[in-house]
Amino acid sequence: MKKILVTGGLGFIGSHTVVELQNRGFQVVIIDNLSNSKRDVLDRITEITTVTPEFHQLDLRNRKDICTFFDKNKIAGVIHFAAYKAVGESVHQPLDYYENNITSLVYLLQEMKTRNIDNFIFSSSCTVYGQAEELPITEDAPVKPAESPYGNTKQIGEEIIAESCEAYGIKAIALRYFNPIGAHDSIKIGELPLGIPQNLIPYITQTAAGIRKELSIYGNDYPTPDGTAIRDYIHVVDLAKAHIAALERLLGNKNQTPFEFFNVGTGIGASVLEVVACFEKVSRQKLPYTIVERRTGDITAAYADTNKANKELDWKAEKTLEEALLSAWKWQQTQ
Ligand code: WQD
Description:
Layout: E1 3-7, H1 12-23, E2 27-31, H2 41-49, E3 54-56, H3 63-72, E4 77-80, H4 87-92, H5 94-114, E5 119-125, H6 149-168, E6 171-177, E7 179-181, H7 200-208, E8 215-218, E9 230-231, E10 233-235, H8 236-251, E11 259-264, E12 270-271, H9 272-283, E13 289-292, H10 307-312, H11 321-334
Parallel strand pairs: 1-2, 1-4, 2-3, 4-5, 5-6, 6-11, 7-10, 8-13
Antiparallel strand pairs: 9-12
Helix pairs in contact: 1-2, 1-8, 5-6, 7-11, 9-11
Bound molecules: UDP-4-deoxy-4-formamido-beta-L-arabinopyranose (WQD).
């Protein structure tokens, strides 16, 4: 069995990807420093797949530890999730974000270079597009100046990878996620936001659970049909499966260029008010909310043109917004 390293594999998207990798017969080893995840996710993964992934609590910034890891493990490919990802926090702590997200990436790529590991999947984000001129957003849309240090670490990360692929013969794919939401069908793994949720769906589910008093909707004066901002909310299991498709493309040497990137979304935009209405339908309860002013840095609308991923990765999102919101609600009720 090919051994795949998943960094950040106990996190939200990482854990769902580990499950899908095991379902496809890959042997998985996880590196996670537990800065934004819980160790018992390992037990939940085992409950789902009956196979416990090998786990090392390491920090990718510790070169010695990482070097020792690669000395002891023959890795066929790397899926790299481990990074700080809170947009708002990154504005207040830019150096923490550059130090963690960029240093970790560089050290990982240096290990891959010296050991001739040449299959690399990078967790990127549609945030690289900023507010795109045209919708739906294709991969040809220009990368805009980042609106946050977090977004900048994704842009810089893609550039570092592209140049490393050219120089060292690494093959890599960046997946530009739209908005990942929901939880595994087993409801044993899901999103575990630390503190007050920054993202819409966990804030909605915590409000419905009575943990938060009401949802604040950040602005209803956008140039959209109902005035609230539009996003492309993709079920985390569909997103996880896109990583397997990308990995299999590289393992099968089907990539057309050393570095490729794909938009990973549903292709369907939903406004905040549409998400609220959909959540009320699946949860069968009213969601208290109030309209407040816009959040700095938010864009009006973003949803993916998924043709490239559909065609080249032979991958397509299958789950609906309703299914994703219902799974998020069921997951919340287990917390
Ligand atoms: C969605 C919509 C908010 C919370 C961010 C990152 C992106 C990725 C996903 C990491 C927006 C509105 C939200 C709330 C609200 N993260 N909202 N009230 O901002 O599209 O994307 O998270 O990779 O990189 O940029 O997601 O869930 O924060 O917001 O009205 O309490 O919901 O204004 O329109 P976003 P989000």
